[in-house]
Amino acid sequence: MWSRPTRLRSEAPVRFDTKVAVPLRDDLETWQRLNVTAFLVSGLGTVAPEVIGEPYEDAGSTPYLPMIRQPVLVFEGAKETLTAAHTKALSRSLTTAVFTSDLFGTGNDRDKRAAVRAVGREALDLVGLLVYGPRNAVDKAVKGARMHP
């Protein structure tokens, strides 16, 4: 009688207790979506070092930087969806990063931080948001956004 082989531990799917979600506004150009996602994700490892995996190395021993160890799920939604996700994420004390429409007009980090600082939380014109934390809490925060196509 044939029996199904058991899955090796290393082949088992890895399930993380946390989630990295990036909801983007659905009216962005493709280059903007890519740019915003890169900016938002770039700082996560500085405040949540556990998300960073081990460095990479190819067969020729060329070293490469470590990357985030878990998937980054990219969503999209209307402006109101991002505003709601932002409010929910903050109310749940989740780790967040914001990218506002004003940041497209800046060319350096100092001006980007000043542009965000100049606007109150309720008036931020969000085009992208990073939300990180426990999987269920992140799911609730980004509810209403749909997976990016």
List the helices and strands and how they pair.
Blueprint: E1 18-25, H1 30-42, H2 44-47, E2 56-57, E3 63-64, E4 72-77, H3 79-91, E5 95-100, H4 109-117, E6 126-134, H5 135-141, E7 146-147
Parallel strand pairs: 1-4
Antiparallel strand pairs: 1-6, 2-3, 4-7, 5-6
Helix pairs in contact: 3-5
Q: Helix amount, in percent?
A: 25-40%
Given as residue ranges, the uncertain stretches (5+ residues, pLDDT < 50) are: 1-8
| Radius of gyration, CA atoms, in whole angstroms | 18 Å
How many strand units? 7
Strand order of the largest sheet: 5-6-1-4-7
Structural class: alpha+beta
Mean pLDDT: 92
Largest beta-sheet details: 5 strands, mixed
Overall shape: it is globular
**Order of SSEs, N→C?**
EHHEEEHEHEHE
Distance between the termini: 44 Å
- How many helices in DSSP terms? 5
Keywords:
five-stranded mixed beta sheet; alpha+beta; disordered N terminus; two-stranded antiparallel ribbon; 149 residues; 5 helices
Please characterize this protein's 3D structure:
With 149 residues, this protein is α+β, with helices and mostly antiparallel strands. Helix content is 31%, strand content 23%. It has five helices and seven strands; from the N terminus they run βααβββαβαβαβ. It has helices at 30-42, 44-47, 79-91, 109-117, 135-141, and strands at 18-25, 56-57, 63-64, 72-77, 95-100, 126-134, 146-147. The strands form two sheets. The protein has a five-stranded mixed beta sheet, with helices on both faces. It has a two-stranded antiparallel sheet with strand order 2-3. Strand 2 and strand 3 (63-64) form a beta hairpin. Helix 3 runs antiparallel to helix 5. The longest helix is centred in the first third of the chain and has 13 residues, at 30-42. The chain is globular. It starts with 17 loop residues before the first strand and ends with a strand. The relative contact order is 0.25. Residues 1-8 have low confidence and may be disordered.
